[in-house]
Specification:
The chain has about 300 residues and is of the alpha/beta class. Helices cover about 20% and strands about 25% of the residues.
Length: about 300
């Protein structure tokens, strides 16, 4: 089968190639083999330990990058339940196994959710990481509830835009941040107020119940002071160096969750959230896309198999 492989850690992007003789994956117990229609990737994933080793720390190069996917079930592993052959699915592949930039991939069934027929594969492949990250930050870790105030850094970005919609949906007051050009978009998404991080003091946000950070660095450090007693600072950027005085600070890595994916898909169907699809490229262009320094707005999607 066709797929993208990376030869070794030192080669990085330069070692990324399209191959036509990649071995067909083996379905372990409770796995499914998915015929991949569209896939997403994270530009920095070649630096992740899981890209190069399995769960036991053993080398697994050459590896296949990419973790977000949308496609259809081609094969069921022993003991797999809840999905059927030919079913449309989307989700998030394991960090320490070969990824989704290939025609077929083995994925734990629990990491996939049914994909409604009226959501196309390109949109579905853009949803798992951004959608699950936003959901888990707000509801699993911060336990956001109606009437609270949440400050969302990068409110117009891929993760922030979904977080803004989700927070507004449950009745929270949303303060978005970003650059000046993001103001209109953040307010359109439902933010009640917006702070330009380049020109306006962060302290203008006042005290908040929840800070959701996707930026890190100095912004993350200074955000701790905004969290009121009993509140929560949640970040995906790095472990917090500064703790809220009387609150919690949480760093987390997103995990797949079928129930949450299903909730997100329902919101895509009725227009409550919109996956941020950016550029779409064929599989053969994936190495060049990884190497490019030009980042277009939205999630870059690789079209693996034509719909």
């Amino acid at each position: 089968m066709k797929g993208i492989t990376v030869r070794d850690r030192d080669a990085g992007v330069a070692g990324m190639t399209l191959t036509s003789d990649l071995p067909y994956p083996r379905a372990a117990e409770n796995d499914v083999i998915v015929r991949v229609h569209a896939a997403g990737f994270t530009p920095g994933e070649l630096t992740w330990p899981g890209t190069w080793t399995d769960r036991a720390g053993r080398d697994r190069t050459p590896s296949v990058p990419g973790h977000e996917l949308s496609g259809e079930v081609a094969e069921l592993g022993y003991g797999t339940t809840g999905l059927t052959i030919g079913q449309r699915v989307f989700g998030l592949a394991d960090w320490t196994r070969d990824g989704t930039l290939a025609e077929y991939v083995a994925v734990e069934a629990r990491n996939l959710a049914p994909l409604p027929a009226d959501i196309d594969h390109t949109a579905a492949a853009a949803l798992p990481i951004s959608g699950l990250t936003a959901w888990q930050a707000l509801f699993d870790h911060a336990r956001l509830h109606p009437g609270q105030i949440v400050l969302i850094h990068g409110a117009a970005g891929g993760v922030g835009s979904i977080a803004t919609r989700l927070a507004r949906e449950i009745g929270a007051r949303v303060i978005g941040t970003g650059r000046a050009r993001d103001r209109g978009r953040a307010l359109e998404l439902g933010a009640h107020a917006f702070l330009d991080l380049e020109t306006e003091p962060l302290t203008d946000a006042g005290e908040v119940d929840v800070v959701f950070d996707v930026i890190g660095g100095d912004i993350l450090d200074r955000s701790a002071a905004l969290v009121r007693a009993g509140g929560t600072l949640v970040t995906i950027a790095a472990p917090p160096r500064v703790q809220p005085t009387n609150g919690r600070a949480i760093f987390f890595v997103v995990e797949s969750d079928r129930a949450q994916l299903t909730e997100l898909a329902a919101r895509v169907r009725d227009g409550r959230i919109t996956p941020g699809v950016g550029a779409v490229h064929p599989l053969a262009e994936a190495p060049a896309v990884f190497a490019s320094k030009n980042r277009t707005p939205g999630k870059t999607i690789i079209r693996v198999i034509e719909n």
